[in-house]
UniProtKB/TrEMBL annotation:
The lineage of its organism: Bacteria, Pseudomonadati, Pseudomonadota, Gammaproteobacteria, Alteromonadales. One of its GO terms (molecular function) is hydrolase activity. Residues 15-313 form the UvrD-like helicase ATP-binding domain. Gene3D superfamilies: P-loop containing nucleotide triphosphate hydrolases (3.40.50.300). The keyword Protease does not apply. This is DNA 3'-5' helicase II. InterPro entries: DNA_helicase_UvrD/REP (IPR000212), P-loop_NTPase (IPR027417), UvrD-like_ATP-bd (IPR014016).
Amino acid sequence: MINIEDVDVREVEQELGLSFDGTRKNILKTFDDVQACPGSGKTTMVAAKLLIIAKKWQTKYQGVCVLTHTNVAKQEIIDRLNRNADGVKLLSYPHFIGTIQEFINKFLAISFLRSNGYCVKHIDDDMCNVKAWHLLSYGTQKFLENKRISSLQNLQYYFNNKELELRVPGFKAESPSNSYRELTEAKETLVNDGYYYYHEMYAFANQSIHDNPKILDAIRHRFPIVFIDEMQDTQKFQDELLNKIFLHDNVKYQRFGDPDQAIYSDDGEENQTYNKAILEKIENSHRFDNSIAQLAKQLSYNRINLTSNKTNRIVSPHTIFLVDDNSRHKVFTEFAHLCEQVVPMDCDNPIKTVGAVGKKKDDGLTICNYLDSFDKDNSKNKFKPKKLIHYFYEAKRIKVGHEAYHIVLNGIVRCGHMANGELVYSDGTKSPYSATSIRKYLKDSNCFIDFNILIKKLLDSSIDKIKWDDAVTRLINLADLQVSTAIQDFISFESNIRLNPTANDNGSNIVTININGRKIENEVATIHAVKGETHAATLVLETKHYEFDMGSLIKYILGENTTKPTGVRKPQFMKKLYVAFSRPEHLLCIAIDKSRFPTEHISKSNYAGWKICDLTT
Ligand SMILES: Nc1ncnc2c1ncn2[C@@H]1O[C@H](COP(=O)(O)OP(=O)(O)OP(=O)(O)O)[C@@H](O)[C@H]1O
């Protein structure tokens, strides 16, 4: 087994150009669970440790397993390993780096399904929902809608009492009704066609272990070292399964995270064995100086003493912008002015604006109330727009040939998935839609050039409704698809007009403003989308989810309440805003409605470490 010595740590410090203090050195040398504050270097330590292990790894058929919660976090680790010749060795067999979901699918659920004679083509909630809904009669759809069920998300298998149990939306028990029969038949079709929901893969994994407990020995033998990053977001059902697999003398199992940043457990129960464990926490951050640490600290749910060793700037620029309905949009320009003064020209980290709620709501307060054109699905991390035409707009925007082409191809692949289509090659073989299979199909059917010319024409000129309607029908025909109700809305025309009058928005949630000849590019995103990131500057917007997040926590934000919040909503708001407040290296700003800011502080220019700037006057 691998032993990590001081000399290994020194070597990796040199390679990375960093130094680790005593606590962090100890984390690198042992395999105990770690709870550490934002920017304390958790991902950096995971990457450093992997680099040390990569150099020493000898066994050919055993590997290191690194699990994350999100694809973004997985990619972050892969990128760090890719920069190093030893690190690259961990990117292939026998090692595994992936999300928890990918691990469960690959090593347990898929093999269970296949060995029981079922094919697995797509694991995707959206695809299952669309496909199953279209299999139902009008009567059953109406029956569900009357029960206020508009999605078949719960038409899944669950592992209960040592066996798989199918839950049927709208029914508490088996029923002789037509609707019940149709729903179970729709599920049967999904399974026979190889379509599964994400969550039910955990049920199949559990069943697999129940049927064949020896599989656990095989997995533990294959992965004697296992790391989990972002552990705080792991839900109870995932944690239980991971513990069943890895909590064993033969496995070194180390989990990294920060319970204060647990923001993924809204729909389910959070894990019990990590978030609730009382561990000594690392409280000093490498990301920001104390002027930001003191502000973010007010939102630490576990009331940690967040600090930094970095030297503070002389005058704190961090600002609370007071806004109202008429002045909300002004905040981008004001923030850009501060960025121009505070963010060094050579800073590589991005400037971002974040809010908890991204989806437009008529009676709510969301990011869209500040930036009308904001589209949550249009973020760099998760580009999943509502219509095919937006893939073309995005491709036009980024201009780089192969990247642009790839974006369009992804749009067509999504269209194929929505239509439940399969590509049929000239020899009769079939394949599900993917970027590779479409290209193969187009070459096989001699349509590759026509397809590429059509895409190029759309990318090279402006698109109006007539041009789009004509081109899109040809495009989807070439890709072996036909217009059907399943894709009608997705392929329909939509113009690319963005309505925000204040900002020079280029269509991808980016607000670019010129200040004194410097281009300040500000990407707008949800808080979820920026987890784990380091920003140059962050502007946090007040939003509403039943209650106003900043409004309900303003006394905490100003350090006037330091007790641990109770109830359901406040702890959730606090964790989300803590993630947001702890992103920036140089500048933290927030925008809150003036009506929810304590009147006694409105006229002050500074309070509680903040500058106060009233944009309503
Ligand atoms: N030992 C170190 N010395 C100096 N800088 C460091 C060190 N470790 C990490 N950093 C820097 O601190 C920043 C945050 O690091 P990292 O992303 O690893 O933190 P994290 O704990 O994973 O953050 P989060 O909790 O927000 O996900 C990065 O800019 C990184 O380069």
